[in-house]
Amino acid sequence: MNDDVDSPDRKRRHFLTVATAVTGLVGAGAAAVPFLASLQPSARAKALGAPVEVAIGSLEPGELVRVLWRGRLIFVLRRSDTMLSHLADNLVNLRDPNSEVLEQQPAYAANEHRSVKPEFLVIEGSCTHLGCAPLEDFELRPSENWGGGFFCPCHGSRFDLAGRVFKGVPAPTNLRVPPYRFVNDDLILIGQDTGAA
Ligand code: FES
Questions:
Q1: In what order do the strands lie in the sheet with 149-151?
Q2: φ, ψ dihedrals at 85, nearest 5°
Q3: For ligand 1, is residue 170 a contact (CB within 6 Å)?
Q4: One digit per residue, pLDDT tens: the chain, 197 residues?
Q5: How many whole angstroms separate alpha carbon 176 and alpha carbon 101?
Q6: Residue 183 burial by CB count (10 A; 0-12/13-18/19+): exposed, middle or buried?
Q7: What distance in angstroms lies between residue 195's CA and the mean position of ligand 1's atoms?
Q8: Whose alpha carbon is nearest atom 3 of ligand 1?
């Protein structure tokens, strides 16, 4: 277990990142804690740790949705065929192309796509440097060896479309894959798995 990933500092950064996002949703000046206290029990349970369902049936290829699970921002991206075809382009430039840092994903996501199904990427939207939320940058730019991915605006870390970190950036590890499973072809449950794909 990587001691840093669940350290108090990391959790605090997660909270600050999510609190900022939630505050933005409910209006400037509103605090996250009163917002959580006002939720109905089921919603509050979800905010505190219950699994979260994500409907994926209507997601278009290339479309990304953001959800909260345990106060963490989670990205669900439906990768297009083009996106998938570029996953192997930059392996030499990636720090951990084969997902060898075990803490960063469940065993069922330690594969070339870092996912249960190649089409759907499920990752935490929290930079592994200091916890900022990476931005999507899906534009293909072959001249820059960029096949699309995520860019962290805080200190410039870059990740590919499987959340794998590039060499030479501050983030030390790939974006983390949370536990999840497919309830059916149209529904993902984040926060719960069966221990196997
Ligand atoms: S927090 Fe992302 S690069 Fe520093």
A1: 135-137, 149-151, 158-160
A2: -70, -15
A3: yes
A4: 444 444 545 544 544 444 444 333 333 334 444 445 555 546 666 666 799 999 999 999 999 999 999 999 999 999 999 999 999 998 999 999 999 999 999 999 999 999 999 999 999 999 999 999 999 999 999 888 899 999 999 999 999 999 999 999 999 999 999 999 999 999 999 998 877 65
A5: 10
A6: middle
A7: 30
A8: 155
Cβ of 132 less than 6 Å from ligand 1: yes
Cα separation of 190 and 182, whole Å?
9
Of the candidates 161, 126, 127, the one whose C-alpha atom is nearest the C-alpha of residue 146 is 161
Query: Are 193 and 108 a contacting pair, CB within 8 Å?
Result: yes
Q: Residue count of the chain, please give it.
A: 197
175 lines ligand 1 (CB under 6 A): no
Instruction: With 0.85 as the threshold, say if the pTM is over it.
Output: no
